[in-house]
Amino acid sequence: MKTIVSTLYAPAAIGTYSQAVTVSGPIATTYLSGQIPLDPKTMQLVSGFENQVKQVFENLRAVCEAAGGSLNHLVKVNVYLLDLAHFAKVNEIMATYIQTPYPARAAVAVAGLPRGAEIEIEGVMVVEMDGSVGG
To answer: What is the pLDDT of residue 25?
Structure first.
């Protein structure tokens, strides 16, 4: 069964997509749309790279929680950066939001991101019916 996930604590979708979609069964898998550093209250981009990374993780956390999980239930994330030179800062900040064992991850440099963001992160979250990490 497919369920659309939506929360006011993350930016509203700005296109033809949902914040996340959960596929239920004995293990629920949630596919999180990419989050950029928009403040969900103002729908404006936050300034400064470090603030942008933190806002992206706050947005991801809100969507994970709306889907019944947490950032620690992420099993895969994809990080899109305008400049890979910032990757060490992403690692540093990510470690404050997600505990080990960390999810699988890819990081790629891109030519541009929506609204002029410097970072976007998408993910896949897996939650067993008892609330533990699937797999």
So the answer is: 86
Tell me how far apart the alpha carbons of residues 110 and 97 are, in angstroms, rounded to a whole number. 24
Of the candidates 15, 87, 9, 27, the one whose C-alpha atom is nearest the C-alpha of residue 121 is 87
Question: What does pTM read for this prediction?
Answer: 0.92
Q: Measuring CA to CA, which residue among 126, 26, 127 is closest to residue 76? A: 126
Q: Is 52 exposed, middle or buried (0-12, 13-18, 19+ CB in 10 A)?
A: buried
H or E element in which residue 93 lies: helix 87-97
> Is 102 in a helix, a strand, or coil?
coil
Q: How far apart are CA 23 and CA 4, in angstroms?
A: 9
- For 38-48, write each residue's pLDDT tens digit: 999 999 999 99
Q: Is the peptide bond before 101 cis (omega within 30 degrees of 0)?
A: yes
* Burial label, 25 (beta-carbon count in 10 A; 0-12, 13-18, 19+): exposed
Task: For residue 49, give the 3-state DSSP assignment.
Answer: helix
Question: Any idea how long the chain is?
Answer: 135
pLDDT digits (tens, 9 = 90+) for 99-118: 999 999 999 999 999 999 99
